[in-house]
Structure to design on (573 residues):
């Protein structure tokens, strides 16, 4: 078997071979133990600031055991991580940096296969982007979701219930004592969000794409099955190296189509639209924004989970997990696509059991219908914007209201709860300058409902932004408006009082201004660039817009000729 690592450890130059073997000995790796065996790089992403990925501090040892049992040799290394709770103002730019970290580590090091330890929102797509670009056999292992908490005798979930209870607190329905009690109990274990937020969505999509072992994406972080999954992942990656099963063989155009359909069926995060587009782009596959709407049309919501439903990821796992959903969705999928086992979706999932119809429903009797992703275009979003129908109270029809415009997050924060804000439930809240260039595209798109309306019982209204929304959030939030305001998109031209119309049936997002009026207003506009140097300057200079996945333009191949990975010249160190 010819291995990539042989170029380091069996190099024809005695000097070069000596340097590499000596360097390995310094860390206690004896050549007789690893030369000629598949070298598996285990990319760990835990940190003391990332509670979602923290279980990997322990799980990595089970991955190593699996690799050794299968005849490979494990080498652990660390990448940056992207804790969504802490990275401000946005963790999205660091997805691209982490993808670079993974890709360049693989490029430069003697690795034959990769196991990538993921969980928190951006770590999963970052690793998939790096794996797609490097195209060596790769598998992901998730840390698993955290347990639900208990607040005053009721189950609560970090994420969705936090936003709901925050509205109650702002409406005066929770006391300071209760709010403090909630903070102590809502996030009671390590692991990802316990609802169908971005973390859970991306794990499910990774399994569908063949980049995570079947049956492992929805195991809880606290379940012993996580250790089994870790060991099996270690075993399987060694076999994948021997089989030459690479990401480009698994993540095909048809596989991405399947993933988009699954995204609709699970009520997955809108962030997944950006991530799938970026991952596919690394392989030279382009996914037009409209494709998400086309493929999700007619796909019902099969999963009754927050934020689109009632239940938690623990409930989902007990009901049969992702396997049960894929099994029921098979008639709508290309079932010939490969899984991480090298066998087809049909082979793996056709008999997957489901145990609770109230959580995982059927195509014939789904939880909800007509709730696929809506893609809106018009003079306010020439390149598109999206709405997650399943998490919105505004499923069909038309809305017309006057804009209340906020120029920044700080502006919104300062004015949203003012008693002087002229707002009612028909108003359209607009937040701009928060796109990929403007602020790194934070999850500010779920603008808070003004307190004066919360006290009247209002819990949803139309909101528009060039920002993103947490996968755990809900509401009528029109997101990812492109091109963004900071690039001179039409969002930069509107003013408070302008009339905006949303028409879901026609798929339009329109401000009642003529093209000439927009051009005239834009004459006084100029961009504001905060970062003058460093990675964030590079990011602002090179980041693509939301409809293209927010990758950096110099990381995405421009043609098929640019897709292949350029291997390093191995020589003197």
């Amino acid at each position: 078997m010819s291995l990539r690592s042989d170029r380091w450890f069996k190099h024809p130059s005695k000097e070069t071979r000596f340097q590499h073997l000596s360097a390995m000995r310094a860390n206690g790796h004896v050549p007789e133990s690893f030369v000629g065996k598949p070298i598996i790089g285990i990319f760990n992403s835990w940190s003391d600031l990332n509670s979602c990925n923290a279980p990997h501090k322990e799980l990595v040892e089970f991955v190593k055991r699996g690799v050794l049992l299968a005849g490979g040799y494990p080498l652990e290394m660390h990448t940056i991580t992207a804790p969504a709770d802490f990275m401000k103002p946005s963790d999205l730019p660091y997805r691209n940096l982490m993808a670079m970290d993974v890709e360049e580590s693989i490029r430069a090091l003697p690795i034959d296969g990769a196991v990538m330890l993921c969980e928190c929102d951006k770590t999963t797509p970052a690793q998939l982007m790096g794996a797609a670009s490097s195209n060596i056999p790769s598998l992901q292992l998730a840390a698993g979701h955290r347990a639900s908490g208990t607040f005053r005798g009721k189950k609560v979930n970090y994420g969705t219930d936090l936003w709901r209870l925050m509205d109650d607190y702002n409406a005066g329905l929770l006391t300071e004592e209760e709010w403090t009690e909630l903070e102590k109990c809502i996030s009671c274990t390590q692991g990802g969000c316990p609802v169908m937020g971005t973390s859970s969505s991306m794990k499910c999509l990774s399994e569908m794409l063949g980049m995570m072992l079947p049956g492992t994406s929805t195991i809880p972080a606290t379940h012993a099955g996580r250790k089994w999954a870790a060991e099996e992942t270690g075993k399987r990656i060694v076999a994948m190296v021997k089989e030459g099963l690479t990401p480009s063989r698994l993540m095909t155009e048809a596989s991405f189509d399947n993933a988009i359909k699954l995204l609709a069926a699970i009520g997955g995060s809108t962030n997944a639209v950006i991530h799938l587009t970026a991952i596919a782009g690394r392989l030279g596959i382009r996914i037009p924004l409209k494709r998400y709407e086309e493929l999700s049309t007619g796909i019902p919501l099969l999963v009754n989970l927050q934020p689109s439903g009632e239940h938690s990821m623990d409930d989902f796992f007990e009901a049969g997990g992702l396997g049960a959903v894929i099994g029921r969705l098979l008639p709508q999928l290309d079932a010939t696509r490969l899984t991480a086992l090298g066998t087809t979706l049909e082979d793996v999932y056709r008999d997957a059991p489901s145990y609770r119809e109230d959580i995982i429903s059927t195509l014939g009797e789904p939880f909800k219908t007509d709730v696929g992703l809506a893609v809106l275009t018009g003079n306010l979003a020439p390149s598109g914007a999206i709405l997650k129908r399943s998490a919105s109270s505004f499923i069909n029809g038309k809305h017309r209201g006057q804009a209340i415009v906020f120029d920044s997050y700080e502006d919104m924060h300062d004015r949203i709860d003012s008693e002087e804000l002229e707002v009612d439930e028909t108003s359209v809240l607009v937040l701009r300058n928060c796109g990929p260039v403007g602020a790194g595209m934070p999850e500010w798109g779920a603008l808070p409902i003004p307190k004066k309306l919360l006290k009247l019982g209002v819990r949803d209204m139309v909101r528009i932004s060039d920002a993103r929304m947490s996968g755990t959030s809900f509401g009528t939030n029109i997101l990812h408006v492109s091109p963004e305001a900071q690039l001179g998109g039409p969002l930069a031209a509107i003013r408070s009082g302008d009339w905006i119309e949303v028409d879901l049936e026609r798929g339009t997002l329109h401000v009642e201004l003529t093209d000439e009026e927009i051009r005239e207003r834009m004459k006084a506009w100029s961009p504001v660039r905060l970062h003058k140097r460093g990675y964030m300057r590079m990011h602002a200079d090179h980041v693509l817009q939301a409809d293209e996945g927010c990758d950096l333009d110099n990381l995405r191949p421009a043609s098929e000729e640019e897709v292949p990975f350029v291997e390093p010249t191995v020589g003197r160190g």
